[in-house]
What does this fold into?
Amino acid sequence: MITLIDFSEINLNGIKSGTRKVFGFYSVVLKKITGAGVIYGRKVYDFSEAALLCMAPEQLSVVTAIEKEAFTEGWGLYFHPDLIRSSALNKSINSYTFFSYNTDEALHLSEKEKSILHLLTQSLKAESSDKLDNYSTDIIVSNIEVILNHCKRFYGRQFITRQIHNKGIASRFEALLTDYFESGKLRLQGLPSVKYCADQLHLSPNYLGDLLKQESGKSAKDHIHFFLIEKAKNLLLNSSSSITEIAYDLGFGQRQSFSKLFKQKTGMSPSEYKNPE
It folds into this structure.
C-alpha cells in the first residue's frame, strides 16, 4: 500500500531506454537525475536539478535515454489509493491540485524545505516499517497528509517568489481572453473553458487556476465570467439587439441560461440592467 524509495540505491543502467510505465498509485518524488531522459505525462522533464514532482494514478512515465554513467538522487513516496480510501484524506485528496500539474510546473525546493520533507518522510518510513497495529494506518495516513500540506505550503511560497513570472502569465491570460471575446469566437464556440485557456498558455488547468487565485483571489473561471459579464453589459447598454440575440452572440443557446448567470453575477436580470426604472 505504501513504500519509500531511496533513489541513490537504484541502478539506472538496468533500466532500458523506452521503458513505459503507467502507475496505479500516488507519488511524491524528490528526484535529481544525471544522464537520463524522462517523460512524464508526454512532456520531457529535466531532472538535472532536484525538484519535487507529484503525480496522481494513471499518469504515463517514459524513460527516453540512459547514459552509461547515469545516476539518480533523492527519494520517492508512493501510496495506493486504497490506503486512503476510508480516511478523511480520500475526501480531500482532490484539493491537492499539484497532483495534476504539468512536469514543467514542478516544485523547486529550498534547502530548508528539503530538510523538512526529509524529516517527515523518515518519520513516515519508520512508522510504516514497524509492526502494524490497530493505529498504524491512521498514523501513516496522517503523516502523508502532513507531507502533502507542506507541499501545498511550499507551492504557495513558489507562487510568491515567482511573482514577476506569474504576473506575466496573468497578463497573457487576460490578453488571450480579450482576443477570444473580441474575435467572434463566443458566438461560434461558446465560452472558453479553463482547459482551453491553459492549453493556449502551455500550462495545466490546475496550475493556471492556482496561480490566478494566488495573484487575484479569483479562479480562472471567475476571470472568464468577468470578461463575459463586462461584454454583456456593453451590449445591453450600447446595442439595439434583443436580450435573446445578445445571449446568442455570447454563445448561449438559450436566453434563460444567460439571464441566470448574469443575475448571479450582477444581482439583476439583463432586462433590469438594460432598462432600469
Notes: The beta strands are 2-6, 20-22, 26-40, 43-45, 51-55, 60-79. Residues 33-48, 64-71 have pLDDT under 50 and may be disordered. The first helix runs from residue 81 to 84.
